[in-house]
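Lab notebook: predicted structure, single chain.

Context: the supervisor wants predicted structures on file for every construct in the current expression panel, including those that have not yet been purified. This is the next one on the list. No modifications to the sequence; it matches the entry in the shared construct table.
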Amino acid sequence: MKAIALPMLLIGLAVATLLVAHYGFAAVGSVFLSIGWGGFLVIVAIHLAVTAICGLAWFVLVPPAGCPTAWAFIWGRLVRGGGGDVLPLSQLGGLVLGARTTSLAGLAGSMSVASTIVDITVELLSQLAFVAIALAIFITLRPHSDLWLSVAGGLAAASVIAFLFIVVQRRASPIVDRLAASVSRRWAVDAIAMKRGLDHIYRRRRAMLASFLLHLAAWIAGAVEIWIALQFMGRPLGIAAVLAIEGLLCAARAVAFAVPNAFGVQEGAYVVLGELFGLGPELALGLSLIKRARDLALGVPALFVWQFVEGWKYWRQPIDSRRMRNDG
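Prediction complete. Output recorded below exactly as produced.
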């Protein structure tokens, strides 16, 4: 996967850089700085709250027996996001780190992996619902645009993929085994126990519905976050238009899943969608840079703290235990 990810990352970064260069580094930089430190800190705080909602969506999936507090899952979600944003070449890096974080908090390793898999599945389903809502808003606001046809086709295809992903988890599970193998490289995970965990979680229908609604609320809150960012930047836009833009942007990022962090894809989508709603390309690109800076502002400290906690736990182990792990 890394053999594909690295060229895609380089191409994406080149596209993003060329877009910014085309519309002017100074112009885009001016828009980026227009939010100010105060506005940027507010956006970071709001995104932290959005991440907390996602952590709660993960928490409600886990059966109460042996389950840590909700804070463990909020922290795990922050680490997961940091891994995905800061380590884009690692396809499963964020998921593995997030699962490990809940395991350190006392959750059984098999349940950490099982709940992570179900959580990303429920999040995908909520994302499809969010894109469907955004598409309906877009058709209402821009009925003469043909863009909705492409989005609708992609949404239908993504729905089929999501269904197949659930079938894979419930029956044959090479994807599940791959994630388990990544986690168990240093931390043993019982595959049979993990499968039982998956079955147990999927039987808790009310918990899955609650997780779905929390994830959907997080997607909507993320759009509100961008609406607030535009207020700070002095370029207000209606909340309905922002919901449409953010939902269709989610669709574009999902289609470009092979591009790490959707570099270049996010920037290009923002330029196209922004033009449809009266946002200039400089503003659209500046907004994209603000989102990336926000992700780094949360992700980098989270990974540093995670590394410290992991190292501390390692060095507190008995010497013989450390030798056994290193030899293995």
